[in-house]
Structure formats: C-alpha cells, structure tokens
C-alpha cells in the first residue's frame, strides 16, 4: 500500500498511544508474525487437528455450502478458493489493491490509522487480510467463509479486511478467528472496514476460539447507505486473555438498519470488553444492539452506545448479563439524542438466573444441571443462521459445561 | 399416594400453613377449597418442593417415601407434576425445546397441542407474552407430555373464558383417566390429583372424590366435593370457621 510520508510519521507516533479501553499490551513483547507460510490448496488434506480448529470457528474444510473460502495463517494468506466469480469476489487485500486501482479509496477511510497503537501497528505493517465484494444486485445463496489463524508463538498477527456489498447485493460472511493447536501467547490486531451500499445487505458472523493467553484488538467500522442492512453476530464462548473491541456502525443513508448481536462467555482469567456503537446519521434509520454475556469467573464489560443525529431514528439496546459462579458483569449503556424526533431506549440487567426459572424446569423432571443448560442455551440463542453442525455441537458442549459448573 | 402429616410451612418468615393433614389415595382426585390467602397455592408449591417454602414441621409421604427433603427434580422424577398459576417467563427457551426433552411420546403431545390449539406456540419462548388462557393450555400441554402419576392443579380454570374451561376440563379429565376404561377401575389405573378451585367450575368435568377446606393455613374440614361446594356457595367460608371454632 502506498503511504504518504507525513501520515506515516503521524502513525508512527501513534504506536505509543494506548487504547482507551482494555489491558495495554506492549507490542514489543511480540514478534511480527511471518508472511511466509506454506499454502494449503486442498483443505481436506489438512490433518485432523487443523480441520477441527477450522470447524470450531464455523469454517468447513470441505467447503460445502460455501461460496468461497479464505484462510490467513499468521500474516500470510494460505488458501483462497471461489465457487462462483460472478456472484462474489474474494481475494487477499494485497492482490485486490493491485487488481482494483479504485480500492485505495476504501482503505483506511473508516478506521483511522492513528486511532491507537493497534491500528498504527496494522497500518505500518501494511497488513494483508481478506477482500470480499458482492457486485451490484448479486445475491449469493451460500456464505463466504474466512479464517484468521495465529500459527506461531508470541507473535502479533495484523490483519486488514475490506468488505464491500454493492447496491442491491446480498452477502453472508462467516469468519472464524483461532489459534493453531499448542499456540498459547499471541496478539491479534484486526482492522475491518465494511461498506454496505444502497439497498444492500451484509450478514456478518464472527466466531472466536482463541487460547488463554491471546490478546485480541479488533477495530471495525461499518458504513451503511440508504436502505442498507447490516447484521452482525459476534460469538466468543471459549477462554481468551483479553478481547477489547468497539465496532462502530454509521447509518449514513435514509432507512438504513443495523442489528448487532454479541454472545460471549468470560471464563476465569478472561477479560471481554465488548462494545458496539451505532451512529444514526440519516432520517428513518434504526438499530438494535443485543448483548448476552455470561461470566463464569472472568470479567465481562458490555458497552452499548447509540448516538442519534437524525430525526425519525429509532434504536433499542439490550444488555443482559448472567453471573454464574463468580466474576464481574458490567453493563454500560449509553444513549445520546442530538435531535428532537428520536426514540432510543435500553434495557440492561445483570445477575444470576432466577431460581424460579430453574425450578420451573426441574418440576418438569429436568435435573438442575440440565435446567441451567436449557436456560443458558436459550439465553445465548439469538438465531444465528448458517452455523455448521460441528460448531453447533461444540457450542452445546460448552454450554453443557457452563451448566455443570454453575451448580 | 400422598400423605401430608402435620405440615407447617413458612414463606418469607411468615407461617402460612399450620399443621396441615391431608391425604390423596391412589387414583383419587381431591379438591382444595378455601378463601384467598388461605395457603392453598403455598401447599401445592411446598408439595412440589419449590424453594422459598420452608417446612418447619411435619412430613410429606409420597408413594410411601418421605419426600419432605427431596429436590424439585427428584419429586418430578418420582411422578409428581404441577400446573402452576403464575409460571415464570423463560426467555429464549422455546416450548418445543422443553417438550422435546420431557415428552414420553412426542407424537401424542403434538396431537394434544393440536386439539388445544397450541401448535403455533412451539417456537415461542415459554410463557413470554402468553395470555392467561394460553398459560393454562401451555401448562396442561407440558404436564401431559411429562405424564406424571400425581397432578397438582392450581386453579386450572381461573381467568379463562367459558368455552376454554370446557376444553381445559375435558382435557384434564382425559389426562387423569389415562388408561382407565371402567369407572370401577379408576383407583387402580387412573392418576391421582389435588386440585385447587375457587369457582368449582372445573368440577363439572372431573370425577372428584374428596374435598378439603383450607382456612388460615389449617384444614377446617373435609367431605364430599359437591356437597361442600354447595355449602360454600350458600354460606361462604365463615361458616366453616365458625363450625371449626365450635368444635374446639
């Protein structure tokens, strides 16, 4: 990527700039992840362990029911495949920048390179990542799947993704983030810039499955034009050291809509600082932010923010947090109305599962563990589509364990 | 089937039931009458073992076993089931999620759901946004799927329109009779139940054996359900209290 000298200097200075929220990671403790990783043409030839890693974040190595697949290991794109070039475009961002001269106008336009040390690092590394684009009017029946893997110890992986859904198009993306077996410590810095154009729809599901010593700092901004729809599902149910993210959705066009679901479990030793922000910039825009988090001994912070700058905007924010066997739940809803004709509301509740609910199910013959499991499963179920059976089984197993440990 | 001896129960530090004695024989359906606040629902909740209902004294014998200290699950697994009056909302838990787990015969449950007009509720969160009548039908459907031997029915007809009372009444009757074809065999093959009713309307559809009147947390007297209902309708509960006082 071409970078302007002045900008580069400004961004270099930002390397010292701590983020507002979350543990401050010392970038110097981590080596830069390698860009030299062997490619994998046929995913079915991956060993069982690697296949399992992919499956557990919703990525099917068989590539059934997927319109395209991309894998990034450390800082290298190791696999790209595409079923139908007419319906969706998928390649590494570096290749895409070479192929489309116009794409530079989309890079680093929504996320500021000097926002904090993590954006700065990603910018200065000229990070690669995925580029996904649905051409105008195209509707892919199957989702695109991507997986970002940390494959080496004690490194920082820097990723830069751009997703563009052109006018009237529809795109589903399932993206998984994980570590290869045996990798404990690492840092994942991910920049994502998403553009949902007029009348387009983007369904974006992200599943995390990190390890106990991984720090995760995603920086995501989504721009939605008139009549566009952005739906995000953010799922992290496994132990991780720290995730701090605060994706922002700008509803720029009339009637644009966004729904962001966050489903998270903070295990002992994990700190999850998960926010979502919607800025209503046009008439008749609407949004729902839904956060369902559980702590089993870790720290869960749910920040939800709605900033209303346009008449006729409507937004609802829901933060529900369960405390199951210790830990901290903090819900921080923020509503801001800067015009008169606007409706923003929130409901937040943190605490244990009501005894009455558990016993109601026990009176039907369920054991206490099964009753808690059923309630937890219901609590976390926000109706995410397209999750492969293997991942669903893995999620069920995690929930069953939470049920057992909660007693 | 059920034997309650000298049961004293506290709720939130307040003594609500005082030395209650009550029996339900196998295959019998007994009725619990009493004014508001008498402790009828408290008795049913205590029998099911819900927390917050603290047994201070006495015992509950079910199928010959002392269940006073057993958990809610253990009682349910022994064959006890309840139709609650005000069940909690279970956000996110779909009615079919629960029915799938508890139904002995899912096909039979679906047929019943069809007949009580509950098929459209399978994908709904349990009790969330249900009307009074829908809660009754959902409770009955769950209870029927669970198929317990002993049913605790807390005012099955309250807040329900006349047509629905008939539907609920006949459905409960079918559930209680279950495999029993001949009236003479009810004690051997039918289910047992303890039913709370204020209006007595549900009794038009059930074969009942004995009624108890509960006032101020104490059983005042017992007898034939129809006779007692007529008496209560004419005289009210005050007569029962006076009568009891005279006894003492």
UniProtKB/TrEMBL annotation, chain A:
Signal peptide: none
InterPro entries attached to this UniProt entry: Fe-S_cluster_assembly_SufBD, SUF_FeS_clus_asmbl_SufBD_core, SUF_FeS_clus_asmbl_SufBD_sf
Pfam families: SUFBD_core
Residue ranges occupied by any SUF system FeS cluster assembly SufBD core domain in the UniProt entry: 151-379
Any one of the GO BP annotations: iron-sulfur cluster assembly
Recorded family membership: Belongs to the iron-sulfur cluster assembly SufBD family.
Annotated protein name in UniProt: SUF system FeS cluster assembly SufBD core domain-containing protein
Automatic annotation (TrEMBL), chain B:
Gene Ontology MF terms in the entry: ATP binding; ATP hydrolysis activity
Stretches assigned to the ABC transporter domain: 2-241
PROSITE patterns in the cross-refs: ABC_TRANSPORTER_2
Tree of life domain: Archaea
Keywords tagged on the record: ATP-binding, Nucleotide-binding
Pfam families found in the cross-reference section: ABC_tran (PF00005)
PANTHER family the record matches: ABC TRANSPORTER I FAMILY MEMBER 6, CHLOROPLASTIC
Listed name of the protein: ABC transporter ATP-binding protein
């Amino acid at each position: 990527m071409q970078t302007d000298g002045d900008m580069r200097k400004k961004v270099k200075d930002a390397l010292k700039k701590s983020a507002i929220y979350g543990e401050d990671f010392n970038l110097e403790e981590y080596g830069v992840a390698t860009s030299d990783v062997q490619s994998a043409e046929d995913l079915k030839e991956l060993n069982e362990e690697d296949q399992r890693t992919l499956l557990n974040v919703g990525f099917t190595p068989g590539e059934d029911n997927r319109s395209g697949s991309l894998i990034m290991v450390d800082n290298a794109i190791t696999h790209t495949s595409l079923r139908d070039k007419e319906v969706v475009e998928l390649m590494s961002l570096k290749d895409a920048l070479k192929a489309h001269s116009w794409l530079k106008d989309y890079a680093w336009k929504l996320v500021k390179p000097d926002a904090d040390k993590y954006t700065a690092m990603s910018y200065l590394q000229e990070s690669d990542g995925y580029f996904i684009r649905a051409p105008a009017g195209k509707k892919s029946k199957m989702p695109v799947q991507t997986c970002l893997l940390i494959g080496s110890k004690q490194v920082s992986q820097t990723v830069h993704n751009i997703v563009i859904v052109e006018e009237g198009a529809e795109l589903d993306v399932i993206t998984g983030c994980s570590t290869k077996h045996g990798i404990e410590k690492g840092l994942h810095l991910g920049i994502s810039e998403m553009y949902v154009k007029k009348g387009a729809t983007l369904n974006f599901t992200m599943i995390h499955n990190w390890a106990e010593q991984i720090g995760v700092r995603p920086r995501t901004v989504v721009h939605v034009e008139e009549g566009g729809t952005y739906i995000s599902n953010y799922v992290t149910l496994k132990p991780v050291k720290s995730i701090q993210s605060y994706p922002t959705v700008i509803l720029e066009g009339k009637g644009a809509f966004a729904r962001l679901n966050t489903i998270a479990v903070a295990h002992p030793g994990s700190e999850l600082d998960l926010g979502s922000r919607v800025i209503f910039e046009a008439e008749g825009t609407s949004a729902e932010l839904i956060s369902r988090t559980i702590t089993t001994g870790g720290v869960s912070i749910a920040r939800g923010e709605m900033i209303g700058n346009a008449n006729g905007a409507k937004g609802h924010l829901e933060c529900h947090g369960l405390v199951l066997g210790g830990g901290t739940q903090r819900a921080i809803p923020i509503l801001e109305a800067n015009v008169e004709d606007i409706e923003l509301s929130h409901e937040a509740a943190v605490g244990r599962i009501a005894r009455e609910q558990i016993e109601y199910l026990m009176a039907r013959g369920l054991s206490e563990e099964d009753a808690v499991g059923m309630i937890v499963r219901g609590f976390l179920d926000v109706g995410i589509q397209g999750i492969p059976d293997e991942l669903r089984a893995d999620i069920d197993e995690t929930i069953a364990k939470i049920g057992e440990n909660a007693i | 089937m059920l034997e309650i001896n000298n049961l004293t129960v506290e709720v939130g530090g307040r003594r609500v039931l005082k030395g209650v004695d009550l029996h339900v024989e196998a295959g019998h359906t007994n009725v619990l009458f009493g004014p508001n606040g008498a402790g009828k629902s408290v008795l049913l909740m205590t029998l099911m073992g819900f927390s917050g209902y603290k047994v201070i004294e006495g015992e509950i014998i079910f199928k010959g076993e002392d269940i006073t200290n057993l958990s809610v699950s253990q009682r349910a697994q022994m064959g006890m089931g309840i139709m609650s009056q005000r069940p909690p909302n279970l956000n996110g838990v779909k009615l079919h999620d629960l029915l799938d787990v508890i139904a002995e015969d899912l096909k039979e449950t679906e047929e019943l759901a069809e007949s009580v007009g509950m098929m459209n509720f399978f994908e709904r969160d349990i009790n969330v946004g249900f009307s009074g009548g829908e809660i009754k039908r959902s409770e009955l459907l769950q209870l029927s799927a669970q198929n317990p031997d002993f049913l605790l029915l807390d005012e099955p007809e309250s807040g329900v329109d006349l047509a629905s009372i008939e539907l609920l009444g006949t459905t409960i009757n079918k559930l209680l009779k279950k495999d029993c074809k001949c009236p003479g065999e009810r004690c051997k093959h039918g289910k047992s139940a303890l039913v709370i009713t204020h209006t007595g309307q549900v009794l038009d559809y059930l074969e009942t054996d004995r009624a108890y009147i509960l006032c101020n947390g104490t059983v005042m007297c017992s007898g034939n359900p129809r006779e007692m209902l007529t008496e209560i309708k004419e005289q009210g509960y005050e007569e029962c209290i006076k009568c009891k006082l005279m006894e003492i």
